[in-house]
Amino acid sequence: MSFSASAKAEVCRQKPEKECCELAELAAMLHTAGSISISGGEFMLRLDTENAAVARRAFLLIKNLYGVNARTQMHTNQLKHNHIYSLTIGAPTARMVAMDTHLIGEEGLGLETDMSFLSSRCCKVAFVRGAFLGGGSVTNPEKSYHLEFVSGQKEFASGLLNIIKDLGVSARMTERGRNYVVYLKEGDAIVTLLTMIGAHASILNIENIRVLKSVRNNVNRKVNCETGNLSKTVNASLRQQESIEYIRTHMGLDKLAPGLREVAQARMDNPEASLEELAAMLGAGSRSGVNHKLRKLISIAEHLKSTREGIHAGEGTDHQTP
Ligand SMILES: [Zn+2]
């Protein structure tokens, strides 16, 4: 079962609470997964879903609210290798349901103009739950954070977007082909929304993955940081060794002051040691004292190089031009 399907099945295990919420949930389900048809002069309402739990949920809501049993059918889609569960309600209940859920009204659905049936928070949450069950999907958080609601109706999508925002969850809307997609991209927002609609076990799953992800990131950051520091130490040490080597060959380490000579020798003997380690090896010397002496060695080498280059330049012009 996909992450989406198991989240939906989990949401469906929630007991429907109040009648107002049942209607809100059914309304959103019908707006996302429902259709109206008129056959033989009879007004019919139909809901199609790939998810058996969602079909059972819709059946229960219709039964609770209107006291009728919707007709249920299962079709097998040979191409997609899945099942489609269909619920149908005939007249006169169908017309009543369509009016109550704002599937039909003066201007089709008037979600933006008439949100009175969604005034309380409980109903807004139930509406989001219904939209998720009917037209929502959530990507496995191991791959990426993405939760979306797809609807063919712009008014419904923007109404849903406002409701989600009202509930304090950040979401956005975009067009995809003929559809309008309300989507959530942030892990926190997805967790908040799924918690609200009752997908608690799915949240635990997401939270575990989030913990794993952040541990992994922290480890990576730490390794990078350590590698960075290490390469800095190594680069500095290489430069110090080159300078000391230069002094040894062009001047002799014995000409250095005893303190400098001691540090030069310690560095040549311990190329990978950090300043702290060198300081510890030398006994009394502090980190900054060692650093100061190493810089002094570098500047002595620089000075030697510049004077020697001067000499060579002179030699070049005087004697070595062919
Ligand atoms: Zn309510």
Characterization of the model:
With 322 residues, this protein is α+β, with helices and mostly antiparallel strands. It has two domains: 3-198, Endonuclease I-creI (Roll); 214-313, no CATH class. The protein is built from eleven helices and eight strands. It has helices at residues 3-12, 19-33, 52-66, 93-100, 121-135, 154-166, 187-197, 200-250, 258-269, 275-281, 287-320, and strands spanning 34-39, 42-49, 71-77, 82-89, 136-138, 147-151, 172-176, 179-184. The strands form two sheets. A four-stranded antiparallel β-sheet has the order 1-2-4-3. A four-stranded antiparallel β-sheet has the order 5-6-8-7. A hairpin with a 4-residue loop joins strand 3 and strand 4 (82-89). It is rod-shaped. The termini are far apart. Residues 314-322 have low confidence and may be disordered. It binds zinc ion. Residues 18, 20-21, 120, 122-123, 126 line the site of zinc ion.
Give the tags.
322 residues, alpha+beta, Endonuclease I-creI, 2 domains, four-stranded antiparallel β-sheet, 8 strands, rod-shaped
TL;DR of this structure?
With 322 residues, this protein is an alpha+beta fold. It has helices spanning 3-12, 19-33, 52-66, 93-100, 121-135, 154-166, 187-197, 200-250, 258-269, 275-281, 287-320, and strands at residues 34-39, 42-49, 71-77, 82-89, 136-138, 147-151, 172-176, 179-184. The protein is 59% helix and 15% strand.
